[in-house]
Amino acid sequence: MREDYINYQGKKIWYSVYGEASQQTPLLVVHGGPGFLSIPDTIADFSEGRPVYFYDQLGSGKSEKANDHDDYSLAYFVSELDAVIQGLQLSEVILLGLSWGCGLIAAYMLDKRPQFVKALILSAPYLSTPLWEECAMENISNLPEVIQKIIVEAEKNQEFGEAYEKAAEVYYGNYLCRLDPWPDSVMDSFGKLNMDVYLTMWGPSEFSVNGKLKRFDLMPRLHEIPVPVLLTCGDNDEAGVKMVKDFQMEFPQGSMAVIPSSAHLHHIEQPLIYKTIVGEFLKDK
């Protein structure tokens, strides 16, 4: 693994690369959040056949923070992704997104219309705030009634205290990561979450969006993305199976896989299944 920085708009954006000498089309991984960081678990293994790049978005992980919270925006992150691709001199690339990273990738494809992106892999995709919130409400309805009441009350009053945090932990254990205990890499990423980014883009609630992404909805335009797209989700994913299926049907070249006995972090929970499915998709690309 090699790591370095790209300078963009006066800020240092961190990246790493595995398998840099490989000759096949590189994979560039776009992490979730907003405000989390790159986790190489499972996905770095694809470097056996091609270069795999990771980068931390502005304010996340090892990248520098914005001078002002308002600098965190969809428009900035789209332009940053383009700058990373150009800075890495990737003449061809396959983009792999995780959660929010999927929305960022799709927004990038629709805004920039890049001809050098050969395919997309969208894992646990967030592509529409309204549909995401519908999924969250459906998932919450399947939790114990006492947990439901705590979450609903917190949402109503916009008060997210200790009881809410404990209820959210129950939700996470069902729909984010079903491993017990969570891997150190996942715990580390939560510990390093930049709340300035998260609160600006998403808001204080896991289940409803009150930040800049409140009206984010790419569903009506997904049909404009012409490249092959693989969508993956866990069978207990907070990105619900029905929603992901609806996304898949909108892509002209969309395919989908549901990973059993897993949730939002299905690539970490079921690495062998995930690598088999994604590896097959990548075989001729």
Explain the layout of strands and helices:
Layout (H helix, E strand, L loop, with lengths): L1 E7 L2 E8 L8 E4 L21 E4 L18 H14 L5 E6 L1 H13 L4 E7 L5 H12 L4 H13 L4 H14 L8 H8 L3 H7 L27 E6 L6 H10 L3 E6 L6 H4 L1 H12 L3
Key attributes of the depicted protein:
eight-stranded mixed sheet, Rossmann fold, single chain, 38% helix, alpha/beta, 285 residues
If you had to describe this structure to a student in words, what would you say it looks like?
- The chain is an alpha/beta fold.
- The protein has a single domain, classed as Alpha/Beta hydrolase fold, catalytic domain (Rossmann fold).
- 38% of the residues lie in helices and 17% in strands.
- It has helices at residues 74-87, 100-112, 129-140, 145-157, 162-175, 184-191, 195-201, 241-250, 266-269, 271-282, and strands at residues 2-8, 11-18, 27-30, 52-55, 93-98, 117-123, 229-234, 254-259.
- An 8-stranded mixed β-sheet has the order 1-2-4-3-5-6-7-8, with helices on both faces.
- A hairpin with a 2-residue loop joins strand 1 (2-8) and strand 2.
- Helix 1 (74-87) packs across helix 2 (100-112) and helix 4 (145-157) crosses helix 5 (162-175).
- The longest helix has 14 residues, at 74-87.
- The model has no long low-confidence stretch (mean pLDDT 97).
Concise summary:
The protein is an alpha/beta fold. The chain is built from ten helices and eight strands. It has a single domain, classed as Alpha/Beta hydrolase fold, catalytic domain (Rossmann fold).
Strand content: 15-25%
- The geometry reads as globular
Q: How many domains make up the coordinates? A: 1
Q: Architecture in CATH?
A: 3-Layer(aba) Sandwich
CATH class wording:
Alpha Beta
User: What is the chain-wise order of helices and strands?
Assistant: EEEEHEHEHHHHHEHEHH
Q: Termini, distance in Å?
A: 23 Å
Order of neighbouring strands in the sheet with most strands: 1-2-4-3-5-6-7-8
Task: Report the total helices.
Answer: 10
Low-pLDDT runs:
none
What is Rg? 18 Å
Please outline the major beta sheet: 8 strands, mixed
Structural class: alpha/beta
Considering DSSP H and I runs of 4 or more, what fraction of the residues is helical? 25-40%
CATH topology: Rossmann fold
Number of strands: 8
**Fourth-tier CATH superfamily name:** Alpha/Beta hydrolase fold, catalytic domain
Average pLDDT rating: 97
